Amino acid sequence: MGNSISPHIENAQKTGVCSLKNRGLVEIPQPLLRLGATLRTLDLSDNKLKVLPSAIGNLTGLKNMTLSSNRLETLPSDLGKLKKLEVLMLNNNNLKVLPVGLFTNLTHLKTVSLASNQITAFPEDMCSLRHLDVIDLSDNKLQALPDGKMGQVQAVELNLNSNQISVLPASLASCPRLKVLRAEENCLTLDAVPREVLTKSQISLLALEGNLFSAKELQEREGYDKYMERFTATKKKFA
């Protein structure tokens, strides 16, 4: 470990905050992993990490972890031990599959970004997280969403832009807090946008540009006026 990193880790012992962005790291420094519950915020973005050690699970005090723009292909299940995590940023890596049950115990999560990876399946264990506000799975390889589970999603914003999704489940209309749904640049036909999402959901911003229908066709779909009532009401509220 170079001297340029040592002061950052020493400082982290006092402040609980450590940023080692763009340091060319190919592995996480061992002294950092020994900080245990002391560390609250960790930023290791823009490095060359391919794997995370299981010892990452020892950082039980972490609330904010950023691992964006690395080379991660897998995640250890020990990540699920970080029960205080509120923000987890993993965008722009090489992730394809996530450990089963990874998010089950991360009950304090508010923001998760897995954008710009190669993920093929929606992480179903995210659906029950009560405090989750934002899920970003844009620019992945999702082809389908788990219909039976999507109605349980607690997020306020769900970003599914730039995937290969061909159907939006009608159960999305049951999401209790979902206000913003982004599904631009997918493979949706007009019939793949359920009427319930327009008429019965809480969604007040529905972004569907770049699919297999025009904006005019969507506007003529039955129930679109109900969606526009919510859109307009929200716009007035924040005007």
From TrEMBL:
The keyword Repeat applies. Signal peptide: none annotated. This is Leucine-rich repeat-containing protein 57. Keywords: Leucine-rich repeat, Repeat. It comes from Nematostella vectensis. PROSITE patterns: LRR. InterPro entries: Leu-rich_rpt, Leu-rich_rpt_typical-subtyp, LRR_dom_sf, LRR_domain-containing. Coiled coil: none annotated. It holds the Pfam family LRR_8.
